[in-house]
Amino acid sequence: QVQLVESGGGSVQAGGSLRLSCAASGRTVSSVAVGWFRQAPGKEREFVGVINWSGNLRYYADFVKGRFTISRDNSENTVYLVMNSLKPEDTAAYYCAAAEKGGWVDTTVKRPSWYVYWGQGTQVTVSS
């Protein structure tokens, strides 16, 4: 079993930045892909991006448009999501999720069902 805990959320003004962390425990996630999702009230959970096991491949949702960066430190069993140029529409609960695969071959990686373990989420609020 893998336990994931997100942290780093908070309230920022538009144009600001945040760094979210996803700390894993119970088992190492250094060999699996880890993704980030977000969910705003009344909306479905939305894919943000994913990083492969080694950290040399990333895949982002179109709306990221160079504003967000995912990285990982396998020695710390932690994955990060750095968000710059935040907009009010980025307001949501952000979740990290770990798969049982090291990488991906198609866009099914964007589906929540591709992931096995989920954190409880951290809230990000961006004011205008």
Oligomeric description of these chains: single chain
How far is the first residue's CA from the last residue's CA?
A: 40 Å
State the secondary-structure class.
mainly beta
Q: Please, what is the average pLDDT?
A: 96
Shape: globular
Q: How does the major sheet shape up?
A: 7 strands, mixed
* Low-confidence runs of at least 5 consecutive residues: none
- What percent of residues are in strands? over 45%
Say how many strands there are: 11
User: Helical proportion?
Assistant: under 10%
Order of helices and strands: EEEEEEEEEEE
**What is the CA-atom radius of gyration, in angstroms?**
13 Å
* Number of H/I helices: 0
Which secondary structure elements does this structure contain, and how are they paired or packed?
Layout: E1 3-7, E2 10-13, E3 18-25, E4 34-39, E5 46-51, E6 58-60, E7 68-73, E8 78-83, E9 92-98, E10 117-118, E11 122-127
Parallel strand pairs: 2-11
Antiparallel strand pairs: 1-3, 3-8, 4-5, 4-9, 5-6, 7-8, 9-10, 9-11
Description of the molecule:
This protein has strands at about 5, 10-15, 20-25, 35-40, 45-50, 60, 70-75, 80-85, 90-100, 115-120, 120-125. It is mainly β. The strands form two sheets. Strands 2, 4, 5, 6, 9, 10 and 11 form a seven-stranded mixed β-sheet that branches. The protein has a four-stranded antiparallel β-sheet with strand order 1-3-8-7, with no helix packed on it. Strand 5 (about 45-50) and strand 6 (about 60) form a beta hairpin. The termini are far apart. The mean pLDDT is about 95.
